[in-house]
Design goal:
The complex is a heterodimer of chains A (182) and B (222). By secondary structure, chain A is α+β, with helices and mostly antiparallel strands. Helix content of chain A is 45%, strand content 8%. Chain B is an all-alpha fold.
Chain lengths: 182, 222
Amino acid sequence: MVVNCEHVWQEVSNYLDGEVTPELRAAIETHVRGCQHCTAVVDGMRNVIELYGDDRMLEVPLGFSHRLHRRLNDNLPARTDRRTFLGWMVAAAAACLVLGSFEVARSSAFRRPPLRAAMANPGTGIPPQLAVVLSEDGKLYHLVGCPFIHEKSKLRSVTAAAAERAGFTPCPRCLKKYLDTA
Amino acid sequence: MPDPLISPARYADSSSTDEESLVRRVLAGEHDLFYELIRPYERRLYAAAFAILRNEPDAEDVAQEAVLKAFKNLRQFRAESKFSTWLTQITVNEARMRRRKAHSNLMEPIADRPDDDGNYTPRDFADWREIPSETLERKEVRLKLAQALAQLSQIYREVFVLRDMQHLSIDETAKALGISTASVKTRLLRARLMLRDLLSPGLGGAWSLGSNLSFEKGTKPW
């Protein structure tokens, strides 16, 4: 199969989404290797997807969440569960536990290392033994095969725990399920 | 040649079991848990509303209305679709309704508007390679991206926002917007190409020299 520039432009979006047949994918890649214009189109579109897909682009007005919850609170029916004295005791005990765990977390042994990207989301619930890849010069760690890996020549495999200890943060695309997007 | 992107849907982890259980508990009377249910999606709902309305106060109001409507109609939620898609669908409908009311004399039915199937020729810029994500730490870059997005027609903007910013799958985007998957793909292609054309000169280096985006000079590349 041979494709020209127009074919590439029609399919570039599907190609980047991995929604083309292996034959078409191979033909596109063969064409793009020899075409500067199409290389720029593919690279440019990939960058657009990556930049807009970043969590930092989903900005909301200051106080948005607070106002939403207040409005919801004003409109939700009254609570059905009534707190008893025992309930308050349990809540107080839980608060003590939480405070205690904060103290433990503040000790240096449990402190999270400084993140390489100051505004990145460190993620939660990532299995420590999950096999991931990273580049020493980068800031993110990825699942193997993630298309958003830069500097592929410098990759090395580590566990997620090791990556976090080194201050790397999860890729917002391939490890999105571990990021709190709220 | 780098590998193509893999569809975010492949990585998507629907914590649907947790959500189903939360939905059941809310319906059983634990209304406070509704906060937990919507918390992960608050920003997405605002973004979906803003993509249609392009007005902060209206988008915020519509997002709030949508959440209230979701609570009132929670019994109608069917677990075969994802809760996030259902929420987005409600928000999109609310936003479209708001827009129609505001422009009742001007607007044609959005979902029925035909796609522009004409071929689109991407502009021939110099090669535009890796843009480091830390670029986004600069507020002016985020602003330029938002301005470029605002230049797109609504039919392209809403598909792009749901698919590429909220990472809905093609099917979920189609369902949320009430259009076919073929339309989603066509509009997504056009939206991505137009944004690439709008942003390429700036992100290629011109922004660092303080120059403006091409469309700010009154020229559009399409």
